[in-house]
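User: My instructor asked us to take a sequence, write out its structure as C-alpha cells, and then describe one feature of it. I'm not sure where to start. Here is the sequence I was given:
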Amino acid sequence: MTEQKKPPYGIIAILFTGAFVAIFNQTLLNIALPEIMIDLNVTASTVQWLVTGYMLVNGILIPASAYFIQRYSNRSIFIVAMSLFALGTLLAAIAPVFSVLLIGRMVQAAGSALMMPLLMNVMLAAFPIEKRGSAMGFFGLVMVVAPAIGPTLSGFIVEHYSWRVLFWIVLPIALIPLALGIFKLKNLTFQDRNLSLDKLSLVLSSLGFGGILYGFSSAGTMGWTDPVVVLTIAIGIVSLLIFGFRQLKLDEPLLQIRIYKYPMFALSSAISVAISMSMFSAMILMPIYIQTIKGISPIESGLLMLPGALVMGVMSPITGRLFDKFGARVLAVPGLAIVVATTYMFSQLSLESSFFNIMLIYTIRMLGISLVMMPVMTNGLNTLPMKSYPHGTAINNTLQQVAGAVGSAFLISIMNVRTESTAKDLAANGTDPASILNLAMLDGINFAFFVSTFIALVALALSIFIKKPVRPVSEAEKEIVYKRKEVTE
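Assistant: Let's start with the prediction itself. The C-alpha cells for your sequence are:
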C-alpha cells in the first residue's frame, strides 16, 4: 500500500457512494420495526433480531476485514460487498415471511461490514498525512449524514406507505455504485497473494465479538441475570482472551493487536470507546424520552435529531481542515467539554422541557462530538506504519460496534433499575398512580444521562494527553511500499 501523490478522486467518489448507502441502511429500519411486527405477525423480541442480527454480522466480519483488504484488491472487495448488499436488499424487499427478511438483512450486513474499513484504508493510502484531516473530514460527513437521514425518511415512508418501500428505495441506489465499480473502479493497492487466513483466529474472533455484542444487546431486554446473556458474554470474553494471546504468537495474525504499542493509537482507541458509549446514550435514551414521555410522533422525533446530525455533517470537512492545521488536541478538548456539559444538561430533563430546548442542546452536543470523533481517530491511525492501516481501521470499527452495544445495554440497564426503584418510592409516598410511570421513567433517563456524563469526563481527561504523532523514519523505511496498480481484474 502506498500513499498517492495525486489522490484518485473518481475512485474515492465511487467508494463514498457505496459507503453512504451501506451506512444509510443501518438506521433506516429502526422506526419501521413496529409496522413489521404487525405485518409479519412477530413479537418485539423477534423483530429486534433485524437490528441485533445486522450488528452481529458486522461484529464478526469487521475484524476479518484486515485480512481481506491485504489479500484481495479494493476493486474485488467493493464489487463483492455491493453485490451482497444489493442481493440482501432485494431479499428483504420481497420477503414473504420474517425468516426471509432476516436472512436478507444479514446478507446486507455482510456487504456493508466491508465497506467502511475498505473506504478508510483507501483514504489513508490516497492522502499524505498532512492532508488526511480534510479527507477524513469528508469521510466523517458520510458517517454522520447517512444515519441521520435514515430515521427521518423512514418515519415519513412508514406513515404513508409499506415498510417494503424502504428496501425498494435502497435497491437502485445500491445498484448504481455497483455498476460504477464494475466498469470504472481501479485498483489502488497491491495484494499479498501469499497471505494466509488463520481459521482458528476467525472462529475465536466470531465467538468473541459476536458473543459480547449479542450478550450486551440482549441484556437490556432479557436482564443481566438471564442465563443466555451470562453465557454468551462469558463465551465472548473467554474467546477474546484466547484470540488475543493467539494473535501475539502468529506471524500473520488476523488482527494485529501489537499496534497498541503505539501510544497515540492506544489513546485514540480509549477515547473513541468512551465517546461512542456516551454518544449512544443520546441516540438510545432521547427517543424513549421524546416518544414515551413527551408523546412526540416518530417523524417529529427524527426531525428533532436532524439539525444535530446536519451540524455534524457541515462541521466534518471544517473539522478536518482544522485538524490538519492545529492537530487533534486543540479540537478534542473543547469538543469533549461541550459533550460533558450538554450530557449533564440532558440529566436535568423534566416533563415540561420544550421541544426547541431539547433540539438546541442535542444540536450543540453533536457539534462537540464533531470536533472529536474523526480527529481523534485519524490522529491515532497516523501514528501507524502503512502496512498496519488495515489492522488499525479494523480495530477502530470493531471497537465502535462493541462500545455501542456495551454502552447501550449498560445505560438502558441503569435506566431500568433506576425507574423501578423510583416507581416504588413514588408509590410508597402516595403519588398519583397515573403519573408514576412517566415520573419514574424520567428519573431513570436523567440518571442514565448523569452516568453518561462521567463516561464523557473520562474521554475529556484522556484527551489532554493527545499529541501529534510522528512516524519514526526508521519505521517508515522498513515498510513494504508497493507501486500503484491501476489494472482492473
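For the description part of your assignment, you could build on this observation: Confidence is low (pLDDT under 50) at residues 472-489. Try explaining in your own words what that tells you about the chain.
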